[in-house]
Amino acid sequence: MEVHAHSHTARKKWKHYLWEFIMLFLAVFCGFLAEYKLEHIIEHQREEKYIQSLVQDLKTDTANLQVYINVRKEKRVLMDSLLMLLSTGNHKQSGNETYFFARQVFNGPPFVSTDGTMQQLKNAGNLRLIKNENIISSILAYDASVKELKEWDESDIRIRTPFREIGGSVFNADQLYKAMDSDFKFVRPTNNPQLITDNPIAINSIAFQIQYLALSCLGNTQRGKALKTKAENLIESLKHQYHL
């Protein structure tokens, strides 16, 4: 009887320990699931926050790109007009227009992307928060196109240097300076200023540089348009994917 009682007690304790183990396991497992679920919710919220911020940055980019495009369209028209005056000799009768157009050759600030969110996504490893591979590819493709336009803008700035160097032998520096007022706005001179030389070789050299700059301006206008389209398409993709 004592042996039987002892055996029964041992089985009872074993079942008790097993039940405690199961309850402890379930508690730990449920805690793990809850923590995993909470982490998933937090990451999803962070993902949506980044996407919303990225959409706002892209909207700013599209607005700035439109300004970028408009400036270059106008600039190319003015450079074509300047070339016409120089090549026909009409610059002598239209000195006001000649200096007004020439002053604007230097105009054309580069495009600067609003990339705060993009940098956070790339540099802090937050791209992992975005689950859709197509969205990631589109974001990185847009970023690559921004860098490409920046390189072309830098090239455009570099090729203005020869124009500055040659321009001093053709344009009157004082009159060119007066073609911009104290508010940095371009103004037409009122005294029909003349070039400082009639040398056809010097005039042809400056015209050649203007042609080169006009082509660069045209190329960057087209690149700006393409980048703007990419930004707009990316905005639509993000809105559709995240129901914004």
Write structural notes for this entry.
The protein is mostly helical and 244 residues long. It has one domain. It has helices at 2-88, 95-103, 116-123, 133-167, 173-177, 200-242. α1 (2-88) runs antiparallel to α2 (95-103), α1 packs across α3 (116-123) and α1 (2-88) packs antiparallel against α6 (200-242). The longest helix is centred in the first third of the chain and has 87 residues, at 2-88. The protein is rod-shaped. The termini are far apart.
Topology of this protein?
Layout: H1 2-88, H2 95-103, H3 116-123, H4 133-167, H5 173-177, H6 200-242
Helix pairs in contact: 1-2, 1-3, 1-6, 4-6
Give the termini distance in whole angstroms: 76 Å
> What is the number of strand segments?
0
Radius of gyration: 34 Å
Low-confidence stretches: none
Please give the count of helices: 6
Series of H and E elements = HHHHHH
Q: What is the makeup of the main sheet?
A: none
Proportion of strand residues:
under 5%
Overall pLDDT: 85
Percentage of helical residues?
Answer: over 70%
Oligomer: single chain
Give the total of domains.
Answer: 1
Structural class: mainly alpha
Give the overall silhouette. rod-shaped
Features:
mainly alpha; 244 residues; 0% strand; rod-shaped
Quick description:
77% of the residues lie in helices and 0% in strands. It has 244 residues and is mainly alpha-helical.
